Amino acid sequence: MRDWRFWLAEQRGTLLAFGIFVVMFIIYTTNHPAGFTANVVQTASNKAVLLAFVAMAQTLVVITAGIDLSVGMIFLLTNCLASWLVVGTPFETAIGVVAVLAAGMLCGALNGAIVIYGRLQPIVATIATGGIFYGIALILRPFPGGSVNEDLADALTGKLFGVVPASLVALAMVVLVVWVPFRRSVLGRGAYAAGSSESAAYMSGVPIERAKFAAYTLSGLMAAIGGLFLTFFTYTGEAAFASGNAYTLFSIAAVVLGGVSLFGGRGSAVGAIFGALAFRTIGDLLFVFNLDALWQPLFQGVILLVAVSLGAFGLFRVRNRLEWFL
Amino acid sequence: MSITTSGGLSGRMPKLLRRADPAVLTAFACIIVLLLVGSLYSRNFLSPEYLVQQLKVASFLGIISTGMMLVILLGQIDLSVPWTITTGAMMACAAAAYGPVAVALAIPFGVLCGVLIGIVNGIGVAYLRIPSMIITLATNAVAQGLMVVYTGGFSPQDSATAAMRYIATGALLPGLPNAVVIWALVGAIAVFLLTRTSFGRAVYGIGNRERAAYLSGINTRRVVLVAFAVCGGLSALGGVLLAGYASKAAQSMGDAYLLPSIAAVVLGGTSILGGRGSYLGTVAGVILITLLQSILSVMQMPEAGRQIIYGVVIIAMLLLYGRAPANR
Questions:
Q1: Residue B221 belongs to what H/E stretch?
Q2: Measured between alpha carbons, how far is B143 from B137 in angstroms, rounded to an integer?
């Protein structure tokens, strides 16, 4: 086998997600009344980028064979925080952005500390911390409101050179600055190793605790970037429980669509991004076909159900029935 | 489990205590502490009427948690509980609009809808081997979509039938609400199933190691399917009762029950990884969470503070006794 085959096998999930997204996006734009214009792409990407950041946050935790059910609440909390802090002069704004990102990392680190050093199951622990984060968000913004530095907001949600959506560029930057270095570092490899077999990784001397802690912390950072962008789009902060929950659920869906294994150790954040883009495009397909918006939740649900059931085709390859049970 | 298996009480108290699960004991100890704390705030807190009222409120969560416990014992989880509750409630109320026969069948119909959702979950988990967390999320989304289409996005106008209201708010025996009786019945059946039948043994076996259970001749896939169906049915039953309690169904009535039901099961000492746990613990967890919510509302704590305290208490209690063994 030559090298590119290994690469292909490793990236299969990501490529599949990319393919689904491209097909869906072509269907979307060809049926859109305005067609494939810069404005259509900008609106679509602005909506999708939020989910893409949250899905990246989820990916980082899922790779370590964990799950983060508080990711939507970190997203809300940082949104509410940003609506207080990211205002004023450029210097104040910069301080505010740093503070919001630090707050997100702190949330992620708290999750990590409870899961790794407290040895609680991620699913229960993050349900509980999600409640805490939501409570803090509610204290910060009992009612929707606040403001944000609009120059920065418009710059990051507008178009570069009148063509490229700035939010997509920001997403690409985050991938290059945060995800790629992490993936290539010892800690990143440790996170993958911990996800695929924690005891084997431990025996081989991989720093699994540090690696997992780094993954959870970076996950908080990603959710905070998402929260910042939400503030840039809406100009306000709002502690909406339903929205936080929806983002948590959609992030899991995006991660699955993006070819990241929920059992850990497989997949990449890039795949999750395409999963998120595809999920959002599918959700918006209804609008270009002029269907009633009431059908959107059902449509998204059915797509989700079909998408996760497709994974069952792997069962046909199973020769030994004992492999059903992981 | 451990408590129910020991025989007569007299002279066996030390043995009973020794065999009791420390998690269950801690949970009950926390209940007593909560009652004491509550009584500091309000004298009424220890009055029988208030405690019965708490038990009545707890019975909704108790019924839902029973199903959740069954699924968690398998090492799975059911995240479709919120919209299964809502579907059960809405469908039961909707059935009431179709004449007297439908009114009589409203409750079974609501529960049946929940069982159907549970069967879809069960097929996905048991036969298609999809991780339960994903398939139940998806069915939750589908159930939500169906209900949104059905109601047009508003709370439905149908109201609960008289029978639903009676079993949720009435009292057949004076002083003993019907909802509590139903919880007791559900609980008794659950204890019987889990401790006295081969189905219960199979549930614990699959939770410990499904591969071993399969090799010892258990039809593990059918057991998983049945467990998910029962969980869906119980969630819907909880929804039917809640609709009777509020005399109508509402869009997001189930959202407030997902996390408490998981928390109640886990706080009661059931391992989230499956295979370990007793129904007595779940009862303790349900009462604990209901009392906690009640105290926080007696203290007139705003929603934000409630959420934070709630999360902190769950983590603190789990750190007390729910920790995984140290690696290696």
A1: helix B220-246
A2: 10
The distance of A47 to chain B (nearest Cα, Å) reads: 20
Nearest alpha carbon to residue A175 among A59, A13, A3? A59
A131 → closest Cβ in B272, B311, B325? B311
Q: Is residue B38 part of a domain?
A: yes
Which range has the worst mean pLDDT, A156-165, A171-180, A294-303, B56-65? Answer: A156-165
Of residues A261 and A108, which shows the higher confidence score? A108
A91/B contact by beta carbon, under 8 A: no
CA angle B194–B125–B148, rounded 5-degree value = 105
The residues in B 43-62 lying below 8 A from A, measured between CB atoms, are none
Contact B133/A304 with Cβ under 8 angstroms? no
Q: What is the CATH number of the domain that holds B248?
A: 1.10.3470
Encode pLDDT of A261-311 as tens digits: 888 888 888 999 999 998 888 877 777 777 777 888 888 888 778 877 776
Let me know if residue B56 belongs to a domain.
yes
One-character DSSP codes across A14-72: HHHHHHHHHHHHHHHHHHSTT-S-HHHHHHHHHHHHHHHHHHHHHHHHHHTT---TTHH
Q: Which CATH number fits domain A8-309: 1.10.3470, 2.60.120, 3.30.420, 3.40.50?
A: 1.10.3470
Q: For chain B, how many structural domains are there in total?
A: 1
Instruction: Tell me the average pLDDT across B212-241.
Output: 94
In a domain, B328, yes or no: no
Contact across the interface for B315 and A128, Cβ inside 8 Å: yes
Structural domain spans, chain A: 8-309
Cβ pair A123:B133 closer than 8 A: yes
Give the domain range for residue B163: 21-321
Which residues are registered as beta bridge partners of B176? B173
d(Cα A126, Cα B325) in Å, to the nearest integer? 19
Radius of gyration of chain B (CA): 20
Position B194 in a domain: yes
Please give the interface size between A and B, counted as residue pairs whose CB atoms are below 8 Å apart: 164
CA distances to A89, A105, A228, B3, B102 from A99, in Å:
15, 10, 11, 52, 59
Chain B nearest-CA residue for A322? B211
Residues 229 through 268 of chain A touching chain B, CB cutoff 8 Å: 241-242, 245, 249, 252-253, 256, 262-263
Q: Any residues with CB less than 8 A from the CB of A164 and at least 6 apart, and which?
A: none
**By the 8 A CB rule, do A83 and A232 touch?**
no
At A111, the pLDDT band (50, 70, 90 cuts) reads very high
